[in-house]
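Structure tokens please, single chain.
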Amino acid sequence: MKTNLLSSDKDPMGTAIADYFHHNKADKLRVFSSQFEEDEIPVNQLFRPYDEMPVLVVSLTDAGSRLPPEVRQFLASWFAGGDKTDPPAGAQLRLIPCSTAAQRSLLPGFAVRNIGLITKTGVLQLGRTAIAFAPESFGDPLYEALYGSDFL
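Here you go.
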């Protein structure tokens, strides 16, 4: 397979990620975009373990129609009490602990390398994120997902 690599002056993000991965070097990436305000990302967050990732909790009821059919069917079966041992091919199922005001539970989920949220001003890229699925709607048709690190 032929690959064309960009030089470090044309791909500072890729260079910083490679430096961190290979040499544990690189501190922060400064990100500029017309989609959102300037931001700084600590490079080590791109390599954080699963249990330190922020979580996107998605309502299966509200957002299920946009999932791949095999994932939607698996999750619907999961919440209906069906077989929990055979996730879709290629998907690495995780059980994500979740605390609410009413209870603690385990939600089925998956880790993804990159995901974006559609906002009023464009797409907000979240990067490496854990996605947990909740069986119910969040009670407001404007919200299909909740994002944060304080669900765990």
